[in-house]
Amino acid sequence: MFDFLVKNASLPDGREGIDIACKNGIITNVEKNISAEAKETVDANGWLLAPPFIDPHFHMDATLSLGIPRLNKSGTLLEGISLWGELKPVQTVDDIIERSLRYCDLAVSMGIGAIRSHVDTCDNELKGVQALLEVKNQVKDYLELQLVAFPQDGLYRDPTALENTIRALDMGVDIVGGIPHFERTMLEGAQSIKTLCEIASERGLLVDMHCDETDDPMSRHIETLAHETQRLGLQGRVTGSHLTSMHSMDNYYVSKLIPLIAEAGVHAIPNPLINIMLQGRHDTYPKRRGQTRVRELRDEGVLIGFGSDCVMDPWYSLGKADMLDVAFMGLHVGQLSSREDMAWCFDAITSNSATIMHLEDYGIDSGAKANFNLLQAKNPIEAIRLRAHRLAVVRSGKLIATNSPLKAELLIEGRPDIVDPASYAPKKA
Fold it and tell me: Annotated catalytic residue: which of 16, 37, 79, 213?
């Protein structure tokens, strides 16, 4: 007898009418017409069964703090930075834990199975580090939380940032982070990358840098990050997040830069919602799009995952933990309009990000962890179009969140009684 059985599901690869059987938290069978009994059975009714959404870039120590101590009225990056400086001294470890757990509740209900969160180490008390290590332990049974030691005020710009970052890693933070474009000079930015990558190499850790999150075409720290990755043999273990200066760079330089990134095996994480909002602010016209050159990076072979970055915090007043919103906006601003492109955007919030985060046993396959979402959509493109309703969220072969199908009752004579937005999917060619 199986522990959990899903009947008649569609899968992201196009297969339909598939049953998925689970036992001891593992997917054991993915095939049609499984006849064995199970302790719990869910009829998918042909809806899309997909692996969990993955958010590879987030700031959980700031999330849900909107309005504390005041609102970001301008919605700009600089006011957000100022607000974070006001919030840090007054918030407590318990405050951060409470907000973070509330966010995790929301994230799980929206089908997120793993989050990589940066945590500010420019705080001598390391309140955020203490809080998120506790949260990581509390949510471990239903949400994988990776933590990045992030010297948010600059490794060299802040007098104790280097010491505190090492302390955070010693306390159990998983990944080495940095922010080279926020150092005082280009030289110190490049030196911070060298120092942080060496720390990661010595400790056998991954690297995830806030890199070139600016409109300045001369902010070219991703070049140094690619170099250090190769010099230290960190290929496949390094990620450059944001990379938004690339939208302003001249095309000749980019034609050299992108192959260097690919050669070094550096991954990229654009964050469409916040990049569209915060970058490109200093242009008149033409307005740049804010987001990095997603298509060009992808086509050169760079592995790309989309992150959300912020939800209701000093920098971004919106958001609802919906990775399909992230993919939807990334698709539009990147003009990723072909059917292949749109399907790829679903990969950017699932399998690509799982690979970037080095998640093990991820996917809808025999032997993978029994973690998946049932979505009210027929396929990945429809899931993005609809920002599909999450009908069921399953972790370790157990149902942990449910929703009734989203339908509207229509009170118009001569027209159907019910409108199901998911029924408008196009017919197959």
Answer: 213
CA 358, 169, 60, 229: dihedral to nearest 10 degrees? -50
The predicted-structure confidence for 355-396, as pLDDT tens digits, reads as follows: 999 999 999 999 999 999 999 999 999 999 999 999 999 999
User: What pLDDT sits at residue 219?
Assistant: 97
Alpha carbons 205 and 172: distance in angstroms, whole number = 11
Buried residues in 340-373 as b, exposed as e (16+ CB within 10 A)? ebbbbbbbbbbbbbbbbbebeebbbeeebbbbbb
pLDDT at 25 over 70: yes
Comparing C-alpha atoms, which of 7, 5, 79 is closest to residue 39?
A: 5
Phi, psi of 159 (to 5 degrees): -65, -25
In this structure, the dihedral spanned by the alpha carbons of residues 114, 120, 121 and 125, taken in order and rounded to 10 degrees, is: -110
In CATH, the number for domain 2-51+364-424 is 2.30.40.10
Q: Which two tokens stand for residue 74?
A: 């301008």
Q: What is the pTM of this model?
A: 0.97
Domain limits, CATH 3.20.20.140, in the chain: 53-356
Task: Give the DSSP per-residue string, 341-397.
Answer: HHHHHHHHTTHHHHHHTT-SS-SSSTTSBS-EEEESSSSHHHHHHHT--EEEEEETT
Nearest to 405 by CA among 8, 46, 55, 12: 46
What CATH architecture applies to the domain 53-356? Alpha-Beta Barrel (3.20)
CB 215 within 8 A of CB 282: yes
Which residues have C-beta within 8 Å of that of residue 426, sequence separation ≥ 6?
none
**For 59-147, where are the alpha helices, taking DSSP H only?**
77-90, 93-109, 127-139
Tokens read off for 242: 């944001």
Is the Cβ–Cβ distance between 210 and 150 less than 8 Å?
Answer: yes
CATH 2.30.40.10 in the chain, residue ranges: 2-51+364-424
213 is catalytic: yes
Parallel, antiparallel, or unpaired for β 206-211 and 175-178? parallel
